[in-house]
Amino acid sequence: MSEAAERLDMVRMRVEEAAHRAGRKAAELCLIAVSKTHDADAIRPLIAAGQRHFGENRVQEAAEKWPGLRTQTPGLTLHLIGQLQSNKAEDAVQLFDAIHAVDRPSLVTALAKACAKLGKWPQFFVQVNIGDEEQKGGCAVADLPALLKMAGEAGLKIEGLMAIPPVGVDAAPYFALLDELAERHGLPLRSMGMSGDYEKAVVLGATHIRVGTALFGTRN
Ligand SMILES: *Cc1c(COP(=O)(O)O)cnc(C)c1O
């Protein structure tokens, strides 16, 4: 077994255990392998091991790596998990199957326009600044209802919420809050949990977990 296959096995097993503990089915959970900074040679072994969902945080980097990999393996799903500039909205819609970074009205407008132009509608998540941190991206918790309303009016179907909790503190209350916000707005999907806390996220209702380091090793 390749090292990548072993790591994938380990993460899948831990996801299954966490899901079992929470009375959930692991099959309902989407494991996104976050491949940012890793090149195609590092990604191929994971694809060979059966991984199909991948996450990138930069449009330009994804545009360089993924068209080639997708030609080699049909059926891959690509998620954008990083901040998106409005002027890259069209590239993002073209390239990604899911966009986890909708966080402001100007971006909603740009994405709705890009989708209509390309006739392609990826799955959308609103990123919430769940810890109300000044330096962090994402829509303020207080602004979420207005942003969701605006997206609806623009014809952009939002299916879930995404969050990156503050670093260095227990993520559990933030995962619980994201789950509650999604529930309140009738959104079925929750993108939360990374290498250090994905099991906790699974127990607290994640539908999408974004795991980089535990699958690829440390980034440079
Ligand atoms: C890099 C990144 C991850 C993966 O982080 P790891 O700790 O390496 O698992 C998850 N989500 C987002 C938004 C990221 O930028």
List the helices and strands and how they pair.
Blueprint: H1 3-21, E1 30-34, H2 40-48, E2 53-56, H3 59-72, E3 77-80, H4 89-95, E4 98-102, H5 105-118, E5 123-129, E6 139-140, H6 144-154, E7 158-163, H7 172-184, E8 189-191, H8 198-203, E9 208-211, H9 213-216
Parallel strand pairs: 1-2, 1-9, 2-3, 3-4, 4-5, 5-6, 5-7, 7-8
Helix pairs in contact: 4-5, 5-6
The protein binds pyridoxal-5'-phosphate.
Pyridoxal-5'-phosphate (PLP) is lined by residues 34, 36, 57, 81-82, 164, 194-196, 210-214.
Any overview of this molecule?
The chain is of the alpha/beta class and about 220 residues long. It has a single domain (about 5-215), classed as Alpha-Beta Barrel (TIM Barrel). The chain has helices at about 5-20, 40-50, 60-70, 90-95, 105-120, 145-155, 170-185, 200-205, 215, and strands spanning about 30-35, 55, 75-80, 100, 125-130, 140, 160-165, 190, 210. Strands 1, 2, 3, 4, 5, 6, 7, 8 and 9 form a nine-stranded parallel sheet that branches. Helix 5 (about 105-120) packs parallel to helix 6. The radius of gyration is 17 Å and the shape is globular. The two termini are about 25 Å apart. About 40% of the residues are buried. The structure holds pyridoxal-5'-phosphate (PLP). Pyridoxal-5'-phosphate (PLP) binds near residues 57 and 210.
